[in-house]
Design brief:
Strands 3-4-7-8-11-12-13-14-15-16 form a ten-stranded mixed sheet. It is elongated and about 70 Å long. It starts with 13 loop residues before the first strand and ends in a 13-residue tail after the last helix. The protein is an alpha/beta fold. Helix 5 packs across helix 6, helix 7 runs parallel beside helix 10 and helix 11 packs parallel to helix 12. The protein contains 13 helices and 16 strands. Bound molecules: iron/sulfur cluster. The site of iron/sulfur cluster has 14 residues, from loops.
Length: about 375
């Protein structure tokens, strides 16, 4: 006689990570529980960082038992940690198959996203920690200096997988946390091409009842997806915005960032000019200095012109040499470039990527995990 499967065993646990307060309230109501229990779970998850129902002692014992049966809190799983001499920790995280929660038709919503590996980086500093998170596994944007681009797009991340990276990094460093947390969306993927889950995770991150991170301490970096910038401009809850510029002319940018053919500098900077900055806010422009390619005095003067009339900060990031056809810029060149911008009154900083001894760029660890040869490759993130 065929054995009977109990009905409860047929119910797939529902991952509550990444759900908004409204979704959690609706979920609790669907269980016949009072809606306010959803708000209590939201607080326990993000404000208290409790990841098992048994520890949510503000809930009745029976409800905790029921949630353990009928729901789940699934954090990304650490499969590898690479620790750098400067304290940087790079995590390789495994993502399970999950539902495509961003899809807006019910059929696609039932589609399963495949398992994937991504990277998250934890960088401790004196009074704060910065966590760099991925928004997609792989990336379709194809920047020529980027190792993630060689993966292609594997899949989008869900809101739970995006916020889960912050939670995992904070949990793993719980005993050494500093008072301030910065989050940068600069890992694998183009955040504005996975818009809804990214925005859903940012709402939780910035929510005073959620993770309560200041909007001044969360930065989304884009390769320049103009419709995404325009859409973000309309959001009530927004992080700071950084643009990966890396060139002083369309011709130059086309060469290293093919996305520029679709959204050329004029359109990109026009969207930047229309972006509604808050009084304390500025746009950050990231500029990777590729020796002999985009680091001349003329390039610097063109950058000054391009960014005129914008409230900006410019980060100059000297390229780390690899086998790609770019050279490390000469220190004197870096200083000359910086000085031209500074002399025009621009806020400009030279940034060196951290954790170089554990490969400080998005995509590298993911490639290792996939068994690809990485020795001849190097990469920068946005
Ligand atoms: S730099 Fe960013 S947008 Fe460009 S390919 Fe790499 S991950 Fe994608």
């Amino acid at each position: 006689m065929a054995s009977q499967t109990p009905e409860s065993a047929l119910i797939r646990p529902r991952n509550l990570l990444g759900k908004s307060p409204e979704e959690l309230r609706a979920f609790l109501e669907s269980l016949g529980e009072p809606a306010y229990r959803g708000a209590q779970i939201y607080h326990a998850l993000y404000a208290e960082r409790r990841f098992d129902f048994a520890s949510m002692t503000n809930l009745p014992a029976k409800l905790r038992e029921r949630l353990a049966r009928e729901a789940a809190i699934e954090l990304p799983r650490i499969i590898r940690k690479h620790c750098s001499d400067d304290g940087t920790v790079r995590y390789v995280l495994a993502l399970e198959a999950s539902k495509d929660s961003a899809a807006n038709d019910s059929e696609a919503n039932d589609r399963l996203l495949p398992p994937a590996t991504i990277e998250t980086v934890f960088m401790p500093e004196e009074n704060r920690q910065t966590i760099c998170i991925s928004t997609q596994a792989g990336c379709a944007v194809d920047c020529h200096f980027c190792l993630t681009a060689t993966l292609g797009l594997i899949r989008n991340l869900t809101a739970g997988e995006i916020i889960g990276q912050v939670l995992v990094a904070l949990e793993d460093n719980r005993s050494a946390l500093k008072p301030q947390t910065n989050v940068v969306l600069m890992g694998q993927g183009e955040p504005l091409l996975n818009f809804e889950p990214v925005v859903a995770s940012i709402r939780i991150l910035l929510d005073p009842n959620g993770m309560n991170v200041s909007p001044k301490h969360v930065t989304l970096s884009t390769s320049g997806i103009v419709p995404g910038i325009e859409r973000l401009a309309r959001e009530k809850v927004r992080p700071k915005l950084a643009i990966s510029l890396n060139a002083s002319s369309n011709e130059q940018r086309n060469e290293i960032m093919p996305i520029n053919r679709k959204y050329p500098l004029e359109a990109l900077l026009d969207a930047c000019r229309r972006y509604p900055l808050r009084p304390w806010e500025h746009l950050t422009f990231e500029y990777v200095l590729l020796g002999g390619f985009n680091d001349s005095n003329d390039d610097a003067r063109r950058v000054v012109k391009l960014l005129a009339n914008l409230r900006t900060k410019v980060n100059l990031i000297p390229w780390n040499p690899g086998d790609l056809p770019y050279a490390k810029p000469d220190p004197a060149r870096i200083e000359a470039f910086r000085k031209i911008l500074a002399d025009k009154g621009m806020r400009v900083f030279v940034r060196y990527s951290r954790g170089q001894d554990v490969m400080a760029a998005c995509g590298q660890l993911a490639l290792m995990e996939m068994g690809a040869a990485t020795s001849s490759l190097t990469q920068i993130s946005q």
